[in-house]
Amino acid sequence: MVITKDVDKYYSNGCHALKSVSTTIKRGEVVAIIGPSGSGKSTFLRTLNQLEEISAGSIEIDGVDMYASTTDINRLRQNVGMVFQSFNLFPHKTALENVMLAPRIVAKRSQKDAETHARELIERVGLGDRMNNYPSHLSGGQQQRVAIARALAMKPDLMLFDEPTSALDPEMVGEVLDVIKGLAQEGMTMVIVTHEMGFAREVADRVLFMEEGALLVDDSPQAVFGGDGHPRLKQFLAKVL
């Protein structure tokens, strides 16, 4: 579904943020990206939605070259949902209105269809009794679950999560991870940047380990967390586990 080949990213200050990153993500696969801060995890994730433009290499999603002159990037993005560290909900709109917004404006769905689907999604993330609440009346975990419902509202084929629990209090992390686990069980294709090693080991089909912009390890959770392999990976895991 997603093929990246020799992806490089340079910033104007000369920083080489991504160094020849190549991987393939299959439909229905859950891929976790781990590594120390500043290793390029989030930068790489953002290139999959062209929120960061690459400097060299190629990215294909469902056979479409993201950087081809004929590619409609806005249309391509409709098939790629993204959930950020911060919730980015509209504070003046209820949970239901936040989830309905993109389908109504971008996808031009009818009010009735958008609302029906939004209600189903909010129920799905366990917030059926919070549909008419404004973000200020929701906990951080609840806001992030609304953000996930909002991303799902466009019926994406691929979901990207950029450290979705990093802004949450520890007691709220589990409720968000449970929603993501549910999506994994339903077969949603997902790429997740995370510091939750137990979650990565339990849910991911594959784990990518990045360091200084390079993809050093691309393997199964069993291999990654099994104690063998790349010495830098072992050093990293010894500090975080």
From TrEMBL:
InterPro entries: AAA+_ATPase (IPR003593), ABC_ATPase_HisP-typ (IPR030679), ABC_transporter-like_ATP-bd (IPR003439), ABC_transporter-like_CS (IPR017871), MetN_ABC_transporter-like (IPR050086), P-loop_NTPase (IPR027417). GO terms for cellular component: plasma membrane. It is a peripheral membrane protein. GO terms for molecular function: ABC-type amino acid transporter activity; ATP binding; ATP hydrolysis activity. PROSITE patterns: ABC_TRANSPORTER_1, ABC_TRANSPORTER_2. The keyword Transport applies. Residues 2-237 form the ABC transporter domain. The keyword Secreted does not apply. Keywords: Amino-acid transport, ATP-binding, Nucleotide-binding, Transport. It is found in: Cell inner membrane. It holds the Pfam family ABC_tran. Belongs to the ABC transporter superfamily. This is ATP-binding cassette domain-containing protein. It comes from Vibrio eleionomae.
